[in-house]
Amino acid sequence: xxxxxxxxxxxxxxxxxxxxxxxxxxxxxxxxxxxxxxxxxxxxxxxxxxxxxxxxxxxxxxxxxxxxxxxxxxxxxxxxxxxxxxxxxxxxxxxxxxxxxxxxxxxxxxxxxxxxxxxxxxxxxxxxxxxxxxxxxxxxxxxxxxxxxxxxxxxxxxxxxxxxxxxxxxxxxxxxxxxxxxxxxxxxxxxxxxxxxxxxxxxxxxxxxxxxxxxxxxxxxxxxxxxxxxxxxxxxxxxxxxxxxxxxxxxxxxxxxxxxxxxxxxxxxxxxxxxxxxxxxxxxxxxxxxxxxxxxxxxxxxxxxxxxxxxxxxxxxxxxxxxxxxxxxxxxxxxxxxxxxxxxxxxxxxxxxxxxxxxxxxxxxxxxxxxxxxxxxxxxxxxxxxxxxxxxxxxxxxxxxxxxxxxxxxxxxxxxxxxxxxxxxxxxxxxxxxxxxxxxxxxxxxxxxxxxxxxxxxxxxxxxxxxxxxxxxxxxxxxxxxxxxxxxxxxxxxxxxxxxxxxxxxxxxxxxxxxxxxxxxxxxxxxxxxxxxxxxxxxxxxxxxxxxxxxxxxxxxxxxxxxxxxxxxxxxxxxxxxxxxxxxxxxxxxxxxxxxxxxxxxxxxxxxxxxxxxxxxxxxxxxxxxxxxxxxxxxxxxxxxxxxxxxxxxxxxxxxxxxxxxxxxxxxxxxxxxxxxxxxxxxxxxxxxxxxxxxxxxxxxxxxxxxxxxxxxxxxxxxxxxxxxxxxxxxxxxxxxxxxxxxxxxxxxxxxxxxxxxxxxxxxxxxxxxxxxxxxxxxxxxxxxxxxxxxxxxxxxxxxxxxxxxxxxxxxxxxxxxxxxxxxxxxxxxxxxxxxxxxxxxxxxxxxxxxxxxxxxxxxxxxxxxxxxxxxxxxxxxxxxxxxxxxxxxxxxxxxxxxxxxxxxxxxxxxxxxxxxxxxxxxxxxxxxxxxxxxxxxxxxxxxxxxxxxxxxxxxx
Length: 957
What we know:
The protein is mainly α.
């Protein structure tokens, strides 16, 4: 039994069983990758970010809108304006949608029919497009399912219909990425097979490499997906792709090293298990330090808060698994198969002496300064002109999706920012249906609309994006002026009637005059009522106005009211007297005894009435003059800025239209509201973030010092999400680069035990990467016309570039460390030795990223081009720069400092000619010693002066 166990252990069967168990468990527990991409693929924003806070507000909105998102159903007539028949068809479709609202999870439907005040936002100016807004519950089903159902439901004959929203477009982007992920995986694995088959002219070796890649990839992907599914770990929509990219490239390179060494040993007659063990001992350290570098570098990304960057930390686990698989899984098959691994080719391929790197290194060794200048002149302009132009919109790669087309229709007929509005939520401690609060909200609406980059703003006071005239003082003053004109006319009539009554008052017409006075009294009573109303309106208008002189005008109004009341009192007295007079006059003919007395009373009463009427007429004339002054004042006030202020009376607030606006724009407690801001441009990295910062500052400043000064402001919408991603990404990306590159540089210095040389090599890689990035930018601009990369391109390209740097620089570092010769003696043969396999590494790197081109994605195409161009530039520049800086690092320190940095003129030396001859002889002898270092037994000349310069030999470093 022990012998069997020993034999199984010797043949590494236990390692094979272990990996079979691991891959079986990974396959069984692997969740649906497409579902994970759909739900967890988008960046997870911090809980303190504006979009997350806005989501929390929306989830507690009330009015049956908790946990909903807004969907736009777009009805478009491509041939022109919507006809009445087509509008009727749209209404019919909406009615059918209303009937099935429970099935679709629709909590609210907003149309221009049930919300007339919002018509400008729902019906385009060219009358060709109508929008119906739907509030759909998140709990009803997936965004993809609901979208497909709604698209079928709103389909209308003769019209183009779309269902769109930022959520639907994001889901469409994830769906597109998910659709080509499998294609990229299959193409990458297939190309890996072909590449290994070409390198070794074998069928078995590529299959072993394929199995190693597949097992490492499935194990890592299952772990990453389960972490996202069960523990909400960071996950990116490109996680399956960048895991495959890093694992396949690293496995291809390590397998190439392994199979090349194994082929040499097996062909020399060594037994397969012994040869396998020797290869593991020889390459184990190299694979170990490469694995350690990549694991630590990418594993450190888990320390970042931004979810997309943190998701790349899973590569650290992937490289660790790949490194273990490379030294444990591949040897299982190599030990069992031996030479059969390279079937059908039986003879060892003849390795030619490739001198490409050697010739490049010779150029750098020959003229180091010239070589450095040439490299910087050729590569430098591309690297130094690096432009960080990134697009944070996820619609760049989406094909002809109906949601994207619907968004384009909205942009074409309503404005570019219509499909991606910005929402400003305002939470206050008091109710927002009071005149003072509404006044501040309206001022904020007008202030935001006046900002650059803003197309329109809708709010509770302006639901259609435009002010409602009857809610403003100017319109109310117009009505007051009309009433005032009527009052002035009535006063003129009263004045004339009073004058007529005072002249024509006689006994025979006394009854008629009583009727006229009664009518006059009724008119004055009406006048008093109108005046009271006028006084109230004037006081309100004056209280809202900041026009000078309001105090004096208010006094005039008060004086006018007092005079009018006095006239009314006198008229009532006159009416009473006239009634008495009429009664006395009626008894004159029947009561002869009292004739004289009654006539006397009649004369006195008649005189009193005349006096009273004359006094009333004078008062009316005075009132008419006062009202004329008030009329002129109100006319000026109506055209002033003060008249543009909002004033909602309790009656207007209680009206049906305004109550509907409150329902649409406030929460259930009427303590939170929102403003919808439509930008003039679609979200872009250049303007959106700056515009949003400006709007936030303006909103906070506008409410400062008002009744809403303590209100909480929260911005939401796709532009805000893009700006938040941009802010976090631009904050973390430099740190990511410094951390990862710093870790690799430190490890490279440790492995090579050389600070300067490792730094020179690493800076060459940085220069090559910047040049490759910029060249790709120019090439993509020429090919597609779009010179702006998606924001994930630098992160994705960082994966293969880091593998390239670690693999090639680690090989160079180990060659330098394991060679005991001086630096100048090592440079040319060492670089030449590393260059013998560089062409294979370059071929593997290029082949490894070609599978990305199968996706027809601008993002992955850019990543592939960046990798290929950087690899080519790096392999051209590295031997030149390594040789140049290597030689300079030896010869420069050996020079006398004052010969390079002193500007003082040399003194004349009488022995100048003699010393020149001495230096010439010494120089010729040194040249001979360089050709044959073994014969170098000379000592420095005793006649040499301190001012003479020495040319360092290779033994001096």
